[in-house]
Amino acid sequence: MRQAGSIYTFLEDLAHKASEARKRTHTSVDTLIMAFEHSPLYRAYLESGLNIMKKQDGPLTRSEFEAMADFRTNLRSKLG
After folding, report:
1. Range of 26's domain?
2. At what angle do helices 62-79 and 40-53 cross, to 10 degrees?
3. Closest to 10 measured CA to CA, from 50, 70, 58
4. What is the pTM of this model?
5. Are 45 and 65 in contact (CB under 8 A)?
6. Measured between alpha carbons, how far is 32 from 1 in angstroms, rounded to an integer?
7. What values do phi and psi take at 55, rounded to 5?
8. Number of structural domains, the chain?
C-alpha cells in the first residue's frame, strides 16, 4: 500500500482492479465486499480504528485510516 506513493492512489487502483475483476468473472458486488472485509488490509483498518480510540499507534496512520473509511463507505458505488 505504501509503495504506491499515496494511499489514495493505492485505493483507486484497488477499486479499479476489483471492478474489472467483477466484470470479468461476473462476481457480485456483495461477494467482492465480503472478500475485502476478510483481507489483511481490512483487518489493519479495524485494528487501527480500535487503536485510535485507545489513543495508541496502529498499523495505519490516522490519515490512512480515514482514507480507508472513505473508501469503505464508497466501495459499493465504485464497484457498481
Report:
1. 2-79
2. 130
3. 70
4. 0.87
5. yes
6. 19
7. 60, 45
8. 1
